[in-house]
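Next comes a concrete protein, fold included:
___
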Amino acid sequence: MRVSTALNRLLVLPGASVQGMEITDVGVIVRIRRRARSYRCPCGAKISGRYDRSVRRWRHNDLGLRKVWLEAEVARVWCPVCARVRTEEVPWARPGARHTRDFEDTVVWLAQRMDKTSLAHLMRCSWDAVQQIVTRVVADRLDDDRLNGLVRIGVDEISYKRGHRYLTVVVDHDTGRVVWVGQGRSLETMDRFFDELGPQRAARLEAVTMDGSSTYLSATRSNAPNATICMDAFHVIQWANEALDAAFRASQIPTVKAQMRESRNQAPWRKARFALRAARHNIKREHVKLLKTIRVERKELHRAYLLKEELRDLYQIVEPEAAYDYLAWWVKRAAASGIIQMENLARKILGHFDSIVAAVELGLSNSRSEGTNTKIRVIQRRGYGYPNPTTLTAMIYLCCSGMNIWLPMET
């Protein structure tokens, strides 16, 4: 069997045939030529004539212990659609790439499953090459159809760099997949998402979960008026804990340390904060004793604690159809409690009243988004950081959007 015939059967290059090979110090250089007579611009236009030509190499999957390079003649063409000279598109590599499709697909498949250092060592390429390949393949495979059929979505932000640098991540509640990632967490960021979503698909949204961010809230109300906004339960309870912390600090006596030294029966106030913030079903016997002491010695603080627990009951024991009446009853109790911190919390909750009730009635929270943020943190640690938001965004799409990558031997 001829060497060219054997290499054609081994490499299985689309739209090309092997002319010869050479073994050098840099690896195996396989000379190929394309079969098509016409040229194709990266925009898709077919062109018969060429502008000029040159020889180019592409890195391919290794053959044994040797690196493999494909060498072919490529042409530059004048594209009437682009109205400029462009390099032709070849079937074995993506436009602008110096690696073959098979090599890039292998790298991307591994990038979904292992850290960047091991991947670069295994494929004998650089970190920069891995990042560029992932970005290029994701841009090639990312389809606008991922935004079709969205009914219930969650919106949340995640920091990617010190200095308050954030990415806005949109997750589909029904599938758990990331459907959109944008840089920043401003009103303009959400407007970009809704511009890409389009008014017709935005009109089909039924529910959007989010935290208390005013930018997400205003952008959703203006671009998706039919969607019900649901306030995440975690952030509501977080507000209650912050109000309880403020009440706890306000209730402390300046000489509490001296009193603790004088009396062994004085409550250990360092543990009191955990007992106050924790849910009733999570506290231990020692925390129950602390709460009893607080009820006797800090009555106002104990009433604030009871209000916090009653607000937590909204998400745990209150039936969805009774959520509106229960929250209205709670707001009246907190507003009339005489505790400044709880009165401020009541006003804050009243400003988000409808979205809090909607979250209980629909049974929605931002748990999908928070789970996705945890996966993104794993991606960041596995990659030892990312130099810019573009590369991190590509990795998020690759690992969290349900993108299927097949190895060359599987296609």
In short: The CA atoms of residues 38 and 48 lie 5 Å apart. The domain at 144-228+365-401 is CATH 3.30.420.10 (Nucleotidyltransferase; domain 5). Confidence is low (pLDDT under 50) at residues 254-267.
